[in-house]
Write a structure and sequence with these properties.
448 residues, 16 helices, mainly alpha
Length: 448
Amino acid sequence: MDRSQALGNEPIGKLLWDFSLPAIVGMLVNALYNIVDSIFVGNGVGEIGLTAVTIAYPIMLIMMGFGMLIGIGASTLVSIRMGQQNKEAAEKILGNALSLLLIIAVVFTLGLTLFLDPILRLLGAEGDVLPYARDFTHMIALGSVSLYIGFGLNNIIRSEGNPRIAMFTMLISAIINIILNPLFIFGLGLGIKGSALATVIAQTVSAIWVLAYFFGKKSVLKIRTANLRLNGAIVAEIIKIGISPFLMQIAASVVTLLFNISLIRYGGDLAVAAYGIVGRVAMLILMPIFGINQGVQPIIGFNYGARNYARVIEAIKKAVFAGTVFSVIGFIVIQLGDVYIVRLFNNNPDLISLGSHAIRVVLIMLPLIGFQVVGASYFQAVGQAGKAAFLSMSRQVILLIPLILVLPQFYGLAGVWAASPIADLASALLTGFYLMTEIKRLKRNIVS
């Protein structure tokens, strides 16, 4: 059976397993190498290195946001066009996506290189932290073109029905990074710059792998020179759908910036380092959920395009259940092993005490996250960009930013930590309302 046609015919449970497992494995390894990076930096450079990486993190979120804007927007359209049996249109979307990614990479790299120090100071890098943040971010910026190509186009590999190749893309990058990090930091004595260099090399190999796939014989869709010319209508569609995850990443960047500013004010550099650890651990737990998310999107998109709404509903329910299982397991591990987790990154007793408390509080609503993430992304998968953007932004902007600004005024550092779980609870309730309404609509449209 053709890979894309299987999306409309094979059992949903099997499809979800086949598409999500490679994504989960790839993203877990991806998250692990981010954690390994931080462990090497924390032990090889010290708390100041963890602080520098955490302060620079909003820039990396913005870079990923642009990759999502094009990659997820294009991959959603590809899924729908494949469901409509329109391969030619899907290939035009692929070509336009590649051109957009290259343009963004060049503009972003030039802008960041020219204004790096002012940007880092705006993010809170001062004194001894600034040189470390500069070394790390400058190297990452120089390799951004590889990040955009590898990360952006990998979504389309999954959408055309080849999740295992998409998994290998992430595995290749992660394994190279894990090998090179200790070599560059400890073996060659490059410090934090070595960590960034390892990341850039890994991403470059990943980008070459992705391009080789689309120019090779195994892909359903091909990169064709004629399709690289930008088409206004296609670009508008890509941006319209991709704007939701893009805005979510931009919001995450703003949230991280506000967190860092509040943490420096109420807890100092050590609190920023603790927040960096919480973020890395949360990423590890969330990656399986994002993997399920990525696995279910082409299934939903294809069947929605084919008007097979019963299969769409089944896919939603099974993805939500799987996401909730992972989030509950992560919650249990964190609540029982908080001290041991933080100790992996650094042996400073003050950092261990502060970090273990922070990780318990910040992630207390973790059992609800699986449902919220999968539920919100459904609207993106079916091209309902407005609702997807609203639900994605509900936590990061509408709820979390005001909480970060207000709660610390009354509760200090405790207010900073409490902002996240309050926003998690409210956004989960909001997503539940919208998703239940949508499922009722789909049921009415099912043709007997």
